[in-house]
Amino acid sequence: MCLQSVHCKIGDVVTTGQAPRITSPLRNTTYTLRNVNLRNDPIVFSAITDADTKVIYWFVDDIYLGNTASKRTIEWRPVTSGRYRVRAIDDRGRADSRTLNVELIN
């Protein structure tokens, strides 16, 4: 996995290009959600990718959330308050990550 790198070596293959750049969730932001609205108010993840990226794999705290086609979004509905690490890894092994704070209220 390569974080924000221009040249990444994965096995014997060198991958060039830009790593995905997460644009949502916002950096250093606390998302406050009401418990009753979790189904209606997800947190949307998105990233800007290099032209050669076809798929982005999304993880929250190293747990696989799902994948999207490049330029598509994915939704996440947290079930507990806390600090989470979000990662986006493209199909070339390039990655970006950021932390996210979630506060659930009644």
Automatic annotation (TrEMBL):
Residues 15-97 form the Penicillin-binding C-terminal domain. InterPro entries: PBP_C. This is Penicillin-binding C-terminal domain-containing protein. It comes from Limnobaculum eriocheiris.
